[in-house]
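Title: Comparing notes on inverse folding

I've been comparing how different people in this forum approach sequence design from structure. To keep things fair, I'm posting one structure and asking everyone to reply with a full sequence. Here's the target:
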């Protein structure tokens, strides 16, 4: 009974030698083996194969790195004005709110500067008002002076013309008339005196009567009187000419003086632009004083240092009574509600990474997982952003896989008591699908 089943085996082997390639035979043998397995074992093997396929699919759709840390933008607080610290309103590692006063520097020097700036502004404004009034005063004074000088010049010119006319009249008319009258009276007087001289001898001889002699004598005396009067009129006419000539010179001097005054008043009109420029300079001084007052008030405001953001105070390096200088680090504020993750992925992992992809974040401190989303990818590798970037143009270059920072926003904080602090190590996994 046992021989018959053994005889066909060589036939099967002979048939198998003529079978298809080994791989197909092996697959048929696995199928035969699976067929000979119990149903439970067969299902387990199939499930294991499915899990392997699923795991391969899943793990091929994500990238991970443990070179990642919690990060945030930390604010370093430093004073902008020097002075002694008189008040501190915080302690180490205390939470603060934006706008809360944390440090007060002695404000008395800056209050004094504000008072000085206010006084300087008041002086500058007074000078500007005075300069403005000076413009109006100068304009009105010069305009009125010019009008008055011009009128005086016209009046003096008229007087000079009148004096010249009077001089001409005295010289040509009155003086000549007086000279002609003197000449006529002198001739009459000479004739009368000659007649008297002729009649005097005749009176003693009786050739002329006493009456005739008296008439000739009277005529001679009248002629002499008229000559004296004509000579006096001539002297008066000459004096009148001299007076008229003096009046003419005086009128000419007045005219010259009025012309000079007119030119002087016109020159004073040039003071108007000078006063306007002085007013502009005074206004500029007012603006400068205002700027100085604003700076003093700003320095006074800087004496009270407020928190620019909300967060937790760390790295305190200031004490009460300490003298601080501008730019000196006093403390830092860490905004714990604005943390993010900086993950440094290999350059070979970022081919399919893009903003908006979901991220699983595992924090080493808590052994807890958080959810996140890719925000952005850095524009350069970490080595390129170093203080001294490497120079690869050498003969012994060794290729090193570079890492590129990826910024990840934490969208699900999880347990609110689990605070993420900058510097914590995390493991970030980006899901590409």
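Reply #1:
Here's my take.
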């Amino acid at each position: 009974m046992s021989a018959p089943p053994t005889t066909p085996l060589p036939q099967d082997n002979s048939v198998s030698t003529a079978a298809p390639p080994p791989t197909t035979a092996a697959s048929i043998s696995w199928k035969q083996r699976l067929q000979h397995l119990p149903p439970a074992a067969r299902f387990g093997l199939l499930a294991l194969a499915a899990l392997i396929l699923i795991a391969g699919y899943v793990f091929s759709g994500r990238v991970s790195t443990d070179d990642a840390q919690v990060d945030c933008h930390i604010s370093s607080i430093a004073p902008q004005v020097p002075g002694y610290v008189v008040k501190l309103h915080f302690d180490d590692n205390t939470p603060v709110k934006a706008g809360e006063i944390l440090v007060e520097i002695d404000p008395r020097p800056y209050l004094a500067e504000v008072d000085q700036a206010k006084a300087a502004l008041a002086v500058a404004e007074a000078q500007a008002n005075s300069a403005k009034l000076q413009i109006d005063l100068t304009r009105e004074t010069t305009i009125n002076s010019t009008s008055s000088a011009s009128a005086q010049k016209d009046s003096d010119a008229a007087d000079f013309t009148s004096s010249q006319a009077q001089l001409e009249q005295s010289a040509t008319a009155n003086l000549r008339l007086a000279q002609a009258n003197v000449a006529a009276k002198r001739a009459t007087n000479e004739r009368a005196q000659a007649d008297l001289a002729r009649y005097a001898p005749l009176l003693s001889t009786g050739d002329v009567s006493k009456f005739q002699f008296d008439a000739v004598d009277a005529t001679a005396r009248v002629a002499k009187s008229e000559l004296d009067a004509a000579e006096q009129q001539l002297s008066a006419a000459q004096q009148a000419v001299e007076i008229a000539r003096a009046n003419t010179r005086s009128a000419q001097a007045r005219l010259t003086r009025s012309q000079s005054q007119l030119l002087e008043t016109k020159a004073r009109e040039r003071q108007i632009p000078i006063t306007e420029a002085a007013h502009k300079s005074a206004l500029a001084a007012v603006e400068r004083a205002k700027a100085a007052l604003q700076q003093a008030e700003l320095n006074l405001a800087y004496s009270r240092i407020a928190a620019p953001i909300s967060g937790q105070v760390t790295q305190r390096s200031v004490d009460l009574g300490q003298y601080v200088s501008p730019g000196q680090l006093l403390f830092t504020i860490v905004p714990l509600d604005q943390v993010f993750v900086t993950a440094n992925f290999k350059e070979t992992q970022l081919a399919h990474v893009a903003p908006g992809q979901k991220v699983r974040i595992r924090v080493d401190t808590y052994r807890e997982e958080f959810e996140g989303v890719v925000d952005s990818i850095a524009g350069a590798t970490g080595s390129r952003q170093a203080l001294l970037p490497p120079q690869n143009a050498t003969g012994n270059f060794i290729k090193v896989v570079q890492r590129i920072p990826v910024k990840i926003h934490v969208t699900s904080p999880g347990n609110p008591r689990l605070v993420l602090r900058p510097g914590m190590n995390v493991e970030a996994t980006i899901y590409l699908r």
